Amino acid sequence: MKKVLTILSLLIGLVSLSACSGSDEIIGTWNAQAADGTELVIEIDKKQLTVDGEKLDYVQNGFGFENSLSYYTIEVDEQETYTIIFPEKDKSLALLIQPTDLEEPLAGTLVFALNKNEKPNYLEYGNKYLK
Prior knowledge:
eight-stranded antiparallel β-barrel, alpha+beta, disordered N terminus, 2 helices, signal, Glycosyltransferase
């Protein structure tokens, strides 16, 4: 019984640690476009993201599936919450939104259109994937 409790405690600790760092789907180099047409590169690793040369700490604090979309929520510098939405099975295309309500992670303002392979188009992605 003591051995089972020890193993259970270790598993809970590992799940807690992995929940804080970024999932493989969001990690990588992303081409991004903002609403004003500005193009930039966003680098995301397990604990930090770099936007236009500025390094920011983040924790992944949620994930889910809804209406055939998969998504991850992140909190940046313990201040702002964002949702990274994957609207297709291809995980090289994503939308980064700032939710207007933390209880509704898929509703909010589109901040960046993201793509790992090519330059994304903010208006095209917004019109196609956000309704």
